[in-house]
Design goal:
The complex is a heterodimer of chains A (about 325) and B (about 1100). Chain A is an all-beta fold and about 325 residues long. Helices cover about 0% and strands about 50% of the residues of chain A. Chain A has one helix spanning about 1-5; strands at about 25-30, 35-40, 45-50, 55-60, 75-80, 90-95, 100-105, 110-115, 120-130, 135-140, 150-155, 155-160, 175, 180-185, 200-205, 210-215, 225-230, 235-240, 250-255, 260-265, 275-280, 290-295, 300-305, 310-315, 320-325. In chain A, strand 18 and strand 19 form a beta hairpin. Among the domains of chain B are: about 450-575, Ubiquitin Conjugating Enzyme (Roll); about 790-845 and about 860-890 and about 990-1010, no CATH class; about 1065-1115. In chain B, helix 6 packs antiparallel against helix 7 (about 550-560). Chain B is extended and about 115 Å long. The chains are: A mainly beta (about 325), B alpha+beta (about 1100). The interface between A and B is large, with 146 and 124 residues.
């Protein structure tokens, strides 16, 4: 099966018309070991997956248009990227205005930047090393900030890399965020600040069971200060996700080893600078939670965890969180 | 002279084409992973070709330390057979199967284009292929589709001969070795003999086997004899010439050899008189060499020699031969076996074996033996020009290489070090039936760590992974390494790039120290360099004195480490290294992965620092190392357990899910089994010192059971790794335990043994594609899935609506009506109703506008309704509606406070960055976006725009290169959103229609921006800019408008007009089509036409140039 995928010629997709929640594409055993992240790019044309087999694979989605329902949506393996010498934990696509760029991080402490060339192959353009332990999370900043990369590492620090036009990487800003280790870091959407581009924020979650919100210093943009410390988890925080769109409220979801998901909300209009906490589900989840992801407009939250299940959540008009479905394999 | 040849095999060495390092007299084992299923040997006896689903590997047996050449051909089907052409004319041709096709490779061709012919006429999988023994153009194939085909390669499109058994699949096909027209094929339990001159029915059928036939083989000396081996445990020899030989009721059966195993392959020997057979199962995984007992009609297999040593069944065997040119049959043979245990083994034939099978090696030959060029094709062949076709050039991309600066091995090559460690050679041959791979002590009583240089390089190379081996040539004893050592003459702390060449004597380590040379370099003074060489020679000599391997010591010296110069210490090192070797072999290196990584990191860092000085930095990778050296690495690795499952939303509303599909139920079952199995295994087992901890772990798992699974779950990566390893171990134990009971102790020993082989670090060919496939093949890999599911129905923002929504129209109520219709069309009834409501509200107002004037706008609660609607959609997270409302309910353009400004000339040109584009277009077409006309939309814009972006990037990230979107903005008066013409005054009533609260404008701007981003993701460039246009409106803050130029709000993707997209072709003046091929060019006016068109034109009697330039092209 996987050999065929690597063959790069054959498409694996079911002939689905895009019905509600229906599987569009299934790729099985593309990697020799378990997969740790799979992300579609900005346009949904490229899929990057990374795995314990030390590689990243990039697939191309074949053109699907709604007008032409007969065309199958399929994926084609474009490239297998191997540079990491350990498992690769996370990948993130940069905004297309920076080109088709992919950032990856892994257990070997490296952060690699890849760029697609005109042959649809990916070239390694940069290897960033500033952490002395596994880098667990990598994320590009909102594109308005420029090419800015946020990494969280098990060595307890977060780093922010800024790329200059000529490809030079500035000395990273390193923030000691969580003593034992940073498990996740996520930028705030630009709209959170009311259009003030100089005020950058991001949220981190770590092995000290805390969620921390960091804000760039108004006078010195190179400095970040701790703005809030959010306490609710009783075990390691595994993932934090800042809702990408801010309407009247801003949302942060944090999930952890304690099988809980906490939603932090901040009313944009109210003047008090407080984050309110809501526990998503009264009873704990059945297993540890690993991952939280918001839809683009921030209305659906997907949670996944140790029991290999993915659940979807939505806030109803009364402001309560209710299940919006479950994804089965 | 000839006497010598007969009695001293050594006389071959160094003679003729055979290299002195030939592996001929040695037993050799090669561990080759990658699912290889078939092997073949070149007639010259030098190259071996192995075929797997991934392609074929060409291996030079004379330099088995060199990694093989790999010709990729990915198929999902196992390769049934691969065969070298036996003809000198086509000695580089190899045929292999790929399901119903047969591929003929020419190894003389370039790797990317090595397939010479593809034979495709079978309907189902090919089971066997056979080259014609006399005619190099002919070959035959047999297939599951019951057919047997013969091919002539001069026309490979279709077979020249087709026949079929009709009932049973053909398992084998062989040409008669004496009669060029006779072909034998096996079908089920019988063999059919065909004469290709005589049509398609067999002239003889040989029946007698009770079960399926696995193999047939013609007697090389007797035209009418053949041998068939069957599942029924017998090998039958048939003679179809004389009907008188009626044995066992069958008229053709000559002899039956009974074995105690189902026979997989039984073949006549190519020398002497005898056969070689391998079992399908049982039979000690050995190959049996037997002679014929001529008297009896039924005999038991009585082997004269046994080739024993494989751990799994032998799937194929071949004979490698060599001979001199003396006109005497002095051929010498070596058996090559390929087994399911992934070993390719070469077995020399002892001199005393030949007489047993009636091979004298003294007979004078009637005809000289065929000579084959003793050449290897295990290196890729560069373009030879001869075979070059056009398409080769076309699909050859420049290959990017990501080598680090120090010139390490290119990554996608087969890892040389891994390959080396898979090669094992024994110098002293013949006695290989007892495990020859087990004593390290040689005859002199000196224990040597490594059997040979190859092994030493492999082990040392793995150990010192900061050293790159640039060249390893075990056969000649030359090794080139590069590393970074503290040899900088100026600054001792700065490592320096060192390249050193070693030459090892063939007798090393027993005799002779290696000779060393260090490449000259700017950073090392000649003085230092000579000193280093001196010191290295000293070390080499010292180790040589004690007959010890010195490579590691030499490299360590170069790396700047202290080297033991004390004889006692030199001897003492051994156990240490031996221990290391075992540890490595047990394959638990994952646990210290991090440590090695750190080392790696430091290493590469040195490399990159160095590379700025050295002249070989020609690649584009930029390494940035910001690790603070003072930072002590933490003792506790807090890397959490890896996520095995997750879901990530894409911008487009799809959910990418990934799972590790070990279903919980199954897992639990397996776990229970493991517990039982390991508990059983633990019993009666004291003498092996397995960790106590291991045992207690097993106990704790079994006592805790599944209830406390959660608490027992590992939290960190390392814990999970340890658990996984243990699970893996147990699983293997379990598998081995399965089906076997009794005698725990013996079983345990067996298990350990098997376990060892299972976990032994096998050289894996590190081609990534192979990695994955071998991972899937092996039972221990986890299954994983990535699925993309469409969850856009959960998301209120609809792509389909966005496409059709309008923000402006003839009048505001009409816009609302339109949007309402659009929503209803897409079954969004709620949204449709909202639009309707909005429309009705606005309609009622515009009717009364002249009467109620300003104060009346809240008459029907319009504003109140609007703010309620905003609140509702905020709660619903319906960004699309929020943004649409924020656009529809406001009039774009600058707020003109002075009434005089509102004249028709006013143009909201600020929006456009290109002032040239501000034009008055047909003001009547208010319904249309003028922007739309100028470019293609959606898919085409997408592809265009990405291209423009990517091309504008070099290798680096840039911020500033977003081209502007040139939006043409029409005259203000066209955007009469809800603006009402008041007949009384004859003016547009626009300014006062404040449907949106100006105080909340910041919020609305945000909605529009976010929605614009969303549209951008969907690829709706026009819609996006249209939405953003509304950010400058009647409510806009003066400050905001001023700041707008600085912000890149309106920046987006440049839309290339359609005309520019097309390449500029030269157009034929006659037919207006682009001119690509032959053309006519006028010398005078330069106009161009297709030669065909030109011919027609001029033939029509035309005299004037088709371009209309008035030139008389044809006239002088």
């Amino acid at each position: 099966m996987s050999t065929a995928i690597q063959n790069g010629q054959e498409f694996y997709a079911d002939q689905s018309t895009t019905k509600k929640g229906e599987t569009q594409v299934t790729i099985t055993n593309a990697h020799a070991d378990s997969i740790h992240d799979a992300v579609l790019d900005y346009y949904g044309k490229r899929l990057a997956t990374c795995s314990s087999d030390k590689t990243i694979k990039v697939f191309e989605v074949s053109e699907t248009s709604e007008d032409n329902s007969t065309s199958n949506s399929g994926y084609q393996l474009l490239d297998t990227l191997s540079e990491h010498s350990g498992p690769v934990w996370q990948v993130d696509w940069a905004h297309p205005k920076f080109g088709t760029c992919l950032a990856s991080c892994g257990y070997d402490g490296k952060v690699c930047i890849w760029k697609e060339n005109s042959y649809k192959k990916f070239e390694l353009i940069s290897v960033l090393k500033c952490h002395t332990a596994s880098v667990n999370s990598v994320q590009w900043a909102p594109h308005e900030y420029g090419p800015l990369l946020l990494c969280g590492s098990s060595d307890g620090s977060c780093s922010i890399f800024e790329f200059q036009d000529n490809g030079v990487v500035n000395e990273p800003i390193i923030i000691d965020a969580h003593q034992i280790g940073v498990n996740a870091a996520c930028w705030a959407p630009i709209t959170f600040n009311g259009g003030n581009n100089n005020e950058k924020r991001f949220v981190t979650g770590g092995c000290d069971n805390l969620v921390k919100i960091w804000k760039s210093d108004e006078t010195d943009p190179k400095k970040y200060q701790l703005e809030h410390t959010l306490r609710a988890h009783s075990d390691w925080v595994r993932d934090v996700a800042w809702s990408p769109s801010v309407l009247n409220k801003s949302y942060i979801a944090s999930v952890g080893q304690d099988s809980q998901c906490v939603i932090w909300t901040k009313d944009q209009e109210s003047k008090d600078n407080e984050w309110k906490q809501t526990v998503l589900k009264e009873n704990k989840f059945d297993d540890v939670l690993w991952r939280a992801s918001w839809s683009l407009s921030g209305d659906v939250l997907a949670l996944s965890g140790g029991d290999n299940r993915i659940t979807l959540w939505r806030e109803n008009l009364q402001g309560q969180w209710e299940s919006a479905g479950e994804v089965n394999e | 002279m000839s006497e010598n040849i007969f009695h001293h095999r050594q006389s071959f060495v160094g003679e003729g084409p055979y290299s002195p390092t030939s592996t001929f007299n040695k037993s050799l084992a090669l561990r080759v992973d990658g699912g290889i299923n078939a092997v073949t040997i070149a007639p010259s006896g030098r190259d071996v070709v192995m075929a797997s689903k991934n392609g074929i590997y060409v291996l030079d047996l004379d330099d088995s330390y060199k990694p093989p050449r790999f010709l990729e051909h990915q198929t999902p089907w196992q390769v049934a057979d691969v065969q070298y052409s036996p003809h000198p004319q086509t000695s580089t041709w190899v045929i292999s199967t790929s399901n119903q096709k047969a591929l003929i490779w020419n190894l003389m061709r370039n790797t990317t284009n090595a397939i010479e012919h593809t034979l495709h006429a079978h309907n189902r999988a090919i089971t066997d292929i056979n080259w014609h023994p006399h005619d190099h153009n002919l070959l035959s194939t047999a297939s599951v589709d019951t057919r047997v085909l013969a091919w002539d390669l001069r026309d490979s499109k279709s077979p020249v001969y087709t026949t079929s058994d009709w009932k049973e699949a053909a398992s084998q096909v062989k040409w008669n070795l004496k009669n060029r027209y006779v072909l034998a094929s096996s079908h089920g339990n019988h063999v059919s003999l065909w004469d290709i001159r005589k049509g398609t029915s067999p002239f003889i059928q040989l029946k007698g086997h009770t079960r399926g036939i696995n193999n047939i083989s013609f007697n090389p000396n007797n035209e009418f004899e053949l041998m068939s081996s069957s599942m029924d445990g017998t090998i039958k020899i048939w003679n179809y010439k004389h009907n008188s030989l009626a044995v066992n009721g069958n008229q053709y059966e000559k002899q039956t050899v009974v074995t105690d195993f189902p026979v997989w392959r039984g073949r006549y020997l190519p020398f002497g008189e005898g056969l070689c057979a391998v079992p399908m199962v049982q039979g000690n995984n050995s190959a049996y060499l037997a002679s014929f007992n001529k008297e009896e009609s039924t005999t038991k297999l009585s082997p004269v020699y046994l080739f024993k040593g494989h751990n799994d069944r032998i799937t194929d065997f071949l004979w490698r031969s060599r001979h001199t040119n003396s006109g005497i049959d002095d051929r010498e043979f070596q058996l090559v076996t390929w087994s399911n245990d992934s070993d390719l083994r070469l077995w020399p034939i002892a001199e005393n074996v030949y007489p047993k099978i009636n091979f004298s090696r003294k007979d004078v030959l009637d005809t000289p033996l065929t000579e084959y060029p003793y050449k290897t094709y295990s290196k890729d062949v560069k373009f030879s020009g001869k075979h070059l076709k056009n398409e080769d050039v076309l699909y050859k991309f420049p290959k990017e290489k990501f080598t680090t600066k120090s010139g390490r091995l290119v990554k996608d090559d087969i890892d040389h070090l891994s390959w080396l460690s898979g090669v094992r050679v024994d110098d002293d041959n013949a006695n290989t039936e007892n495990d020859a791979f087990n004593d390290l002590v040689d005859q002199d009583g000196f224990s040597s760590l490594y059997r040979n240089l190859g092994e030493e390089v492999a082990v040392v190379g793995k150990k010192l992974d900061m050293v790159s081996f640039e060249k390893i040539s075990v056969s000649t004893g030359d090794i080139v390494v590069s590393l970074n050592g503290p040899w900088n003459s100026v600054n001792k702390n700065k490592p320096v790039f060192v390249r050193a060449t070693f030459h090892f004597d063939p007798k090393y380590p027993k005799l002779g120290a290696p000779t060393v040379n260090i490449e000259e370099s700017r950073e090392i003074t000649d003085e230092d360099r000579l000193k280093m060489i001196q010191q290295l020679n000293k070390i080499g000599a010292l180790y040589a004195e004690y007959k010890q391997n010195s490579l590691e010591a030499l490299l360590r010296y170069l790396l700047g480490e202290e080297v033991e110069m004390n004889p006692d210490d030199i001897l003492r090192i051994n156990p240490d290294i031996a221990e290391y070797d075992i540890m490595k072999n047990l394959g638990f290196d994952e646990e210290d992965l991090w440590n090695t990584n750190l080392r790696n990191d430091n290493d590469t860092e040195i490399v990159s620092e160095n590379s700025t000085d050295s002249d070989e930095s020609d690649d584009a990778i930029k390494e940035h190392n910001f690790i603070n050296k003072n930072l002590a690495s933490k003792s506790f690795d807090s890397t959490p357990v890896p996520k095995g499952c997750g879901a990530v939303f894409s911008h487009t509303g799809q959910l990418v899910c990934f799972f590790t599909s070990t279903n919980a139920e199954k897992q639990r079952k397996v776990q229970d089994k493991i517990i039982n199995a390991s508990a059983g295994a633990m019993r009666g087992f004291g003498r092996l010192n397995k960790n106590d901890q291991d045992k207690s772990d097993v106990d704790s798992v079994s006592t805790n059971g599944n209830n406390s699974m959660l608490e027992n779950k590992p939290k960190t990566y390392l814990e999970s790794l340890a658990l996984k390893n243990k699970k893996g171990e147990n699983k293997i134990d379990n598998v081995i335990l399965g089906g076997k009971t009794n005698n725990d102790e013996d079983e345990w020993e067996k298990m350990l043994k098997n376990d060892l082989t299972f976990r032994t670090k096998m050289p894996v060919l590190t081609n990534p594609s192979m990695l994955a496939s071998s991972g899937v093949d092996s039972s221990k890999s986890e299954k994983n899935t990535v699925t993309i599911k469409d969850y856009s129905f959960l998301i209120p923002d609809k792509k389909s609506l966005a496409k059709k929504y309008k923000t402006q129209g003839a009048s505001l109520p009409l816009v609302c009506k339109h949007n309402s219709d659009v929503a209803r069309e897409h079954q969004e009834d709620d949204i449709a109703q909202c639009w309707e409501l909005l429309g009705n509200m606005l309609k009622s107002r515009s009717k009364d506008i002249s009467r109620y004037q300003d104060w009346s706008y809240d008459f029907d609660g319009g504003r109140c309704l609007i703010s309620e609607m905003f609140a509702y959609f905020e709660k619903c997270h319906n960004l699309q509606m929020l943004a649409m409302m924020a656009c529809v309910l406001v009039s774009p353009g600058r707020n003109h406070s002075k009434p005089g400004d509102s004249d028709a000339d006013y143009v909201s040109g600020e929006i456009s960055f290109d002032e040239n584009n501000i034009k008055n277009r047909e003001s009547g077409s208010s319904d249309k976006f003028s922007t739309r006309e100028s470019y293609h939309r959606q898919s085409s814009t997408y592809s265009l725009s990405t291209r423009s972006i990517t091309s504008s990037f070099s290798n680096n990230l840039q911020t500033d290169s977003i081209p502007c979107l040139k939006v043409e903005v029409l005259k203000n008066d066209i955007f009469d959103n809800g603006n009402v013409y008041i007949p009384k005054t004859g003016e547009f009533f626009c300014k006062k229609l404040n449907l949106l609260n100006p105080e909340e404008e910041i919020k609305f701007i945000k909605y529009r921006e976010q929605y614009a981003d969303m549209l951008y993701t969907w690829g709706f460039q026009a819609e996006r800019s249209n939405i953003l246009r509304f950010n400058i409106n009647e409510n806009s803050d003066e400050k905001y408008i001023q700041s707008i130029d600085e912000q890149d709000l309106f920046k987006g993707l440049e839309v290339i007009p359609a005309e520019e997209k097309e390449k500029e072709f030269i157009v034929c003046r006659v037919c207006d089509e682009p001119v690509i091929k032959r053309s006519f060019v006028c010398n005078k006016c330069g106009c161009i036409a297709h030669s065909e068109c030109a011919k027609t034109w001029w033939n029509c009697g035309m005299e004037i140039c088709p371009s209309g330039c008035g030139c008389y092209c044809l006239l002088r």
